[in-house]
Amino acid sequence: MRVAKILFITSLFACVHSIALADSQNSKFFGQAGIGGVYYDFGGENISSAGAYLGGEFGWEFLNRVHTIFGVRLGGGQSKASQVLGVAESAGFVISDQYVKVGVNIAGVNAPLYINLFTEQNNHNSKSGLSRNLGLFGAEIEGALPLGNVAKLEYSAGYAFSTGDSSYSIAEKTSYIEKDFSKSYVLSASVGFVRNLSDSTAFYTKLIGKYQNLNAAYYSDSTQGYPSSSNLVGMLEFGFRGL
Question: Which pTM value belongs to this model?
Answer without folding.
Answer: 0.88
